[in-house]
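Entries read sequence, tokenised fold; example below:

***
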Amino acid sequence: KHGINAEYGGADGEPGVDGAKGDTGPRGETGEPGEDGAKGEKGERGEPGSKGLAGIQGEKGEPGVDGGKGDRGPDGDCAPDSYTPCNCDTHVLVRHSQSTDEPECPTGFESLWSGYSLVFFEGNGYGLSQDLGSAGSCLEEFQVMPFMQCSSSDVCRHGVRTDKSFWLAVDAEPDFSVKPMTSIDEIQNHISRCNVCVGTKYLITRHSFSDTAPECPPKFSKMWEGYSYLMVTSSGTSGGGQDLASSGSCLENFYLHLY
């Protein structure tokens, strides 16, 4: 804008050149918060969290209502039931290894004790045989003469008559060129080991009368198969028979030197 100075009467000059930029002033006070921005896009799904702790077990519920009475069953047949072996009783069997190794009990049976396989006693010409399927045929200790003779005079004598004991043998070739064995340790190497087992399975032995093992009857399963053992004899008429229904009449190995 041009004008005339009243004091000197001269005209106004042109605007001066802009001055240099001044120093930065002090920082102002924080302003009021701005308005919320627009809503952002949905983020990606996060990883599954850790499994939480198990909750406290709830209280026991009330007993339910009794169900309705069932329908009447069909009438039964008036006839005898078929024979089914009872599994509520315990049965004992003895297994003989016919070796110096202790045999294992069949499946479903547990061992009561193990020992040495006794076959037969003879005293003064009279014999007493043991059923190889009974517990009496498995003595826990081996003795050359495991019994003694006692008289009414309160005197007992051990091995002074023609007493003998017979034991199931192992498959070892005897050496007849040497004197009879006298050491217990040496004799025990020729005596079969046995195991007395108990279980709930009913036992029966079947003989085929042939060189082929027979099949088990219906509802029975095989425990082992072997050779039919019938009896033991000694000098003269002394001897004893084996119950063919007993498991002791089925020996798993056939040896010519049986005892």
